Amino acid sequence: MVLPIVAYGSPILKKEAEEIDEHYEGLEQLVADMFETMYEASGVGLAAPQIDRSIRVFIVDGSPFAEVEEGAEPDPMAAGLENFKKVFINPIIEEESGEEWAFAEGCLSIPKIREDVMRKPKIKISYYDLEWNLHEEEYEGYAARIIQHEYDHIEGILFTDHLSPLKRRILKKKLTNISKGEVDVPYRMKFPNLQKKR
Ligand code: NI
């Protein structure tokens, strides 16, 4: 089932999400619904708070980043993304390293805005999968970037929080409009400050 995606301005997006345990009801269905929702919206990652659940779960599928245009050189930052489809439960980023790099991030909760965000290129993360096996893995490039963005969501942080005050001021009107539902989005959303049409 495709779920509505919570828009910028919703309090749940600013809240630190809760860990879950193996008794959490309906987790498998929830994750299946999250994938359906993410694909419907053409996203590469989706965190549970974005579908109105304040739990420490996010999903990724970086395969769209792995596609190489004909005649183009493969992008080294995209290495390993063909099979980068995963569920992260109760993840902990153990370590981030390397020289920060800029990448224009977007977010399904903040449609039509993309801005450069600086992050470190390498991470070490531990998490549980759907069968509750514990993993510890290292990622870099776009894979690390997607994880860092989604991990922020379960910490109650949005990519716009990483921008300079000036940049945020420039975007303020657009962000307010998004929270009011005054934005054209090709997927279902839930707007916190929806204005009734007169
Ligand atoms: Ni996002």
Any descriptors?
binds nickel (II) ion; five-stranded antiparallel beta sheet; 198 residues; single chain
Q: Could you please describe the fold and organization of this structure?
A:
The chain is of the alpha+beta class. The chain has one domain: Alpha-Beta Complex (Peptide Deformylase), CATH 3.90.45. It has four helices and nine strands. The strands form three sheets. A five-stranded antiparallel β-sheet has the order 2-3-4-7-8, with helices on both faces. Strands 1-9 form a two-stranded parallel sheet. Strand 5 and strand 6 form a beta hairpin. The protein is globular. The two termini are 31 Å apart. The structure holds nickel (II) ion. Nickel (II) ion (NI) binds next to helix 3.
Write the layout of secondary structure elements.
Layout: E1 5-6, H1 27-40, E2 45-47, E3 57-61, H2 63-66, E4 85-97, E5 101-107, E6 110-119, E7 122-128, E8 134-140, H3 141-154, H4 165-179, E9 189-190
Parallel strand pairs: 1-9
Antiparallel strand pairs: 2-3, 3-4, 4-7, 5-6, 7-8
Quickly describe the structure.
The protein is built from four helices and nine strands.
Number of strands: 9
Radius of gyration: 17 Å
Catalogue the unreliable spans.
none
The share of residues in helices is 10-25%
Label the structural class: alpha+beta
Order of helices and strands: EHEEHEEEEEHHE
Domain module tally: 1
Query: If strands are numbered along the chain, what order do they take across the biggest sheet?
Result: 2-3-4-7-8
Straight-line N-to-C gap: 31 Å
Mean of pLDDT: 95
CATH topology: Peptide Deformylase
For the record, the CATH architecture stands as: Alpha-Beta Complex
Which molecules are bound in this entry?
A: nickel (II) ion
The CATH superfamily bears the name Peptide deformylase
* Major sheet characteristics: 5 strands, antiparallel
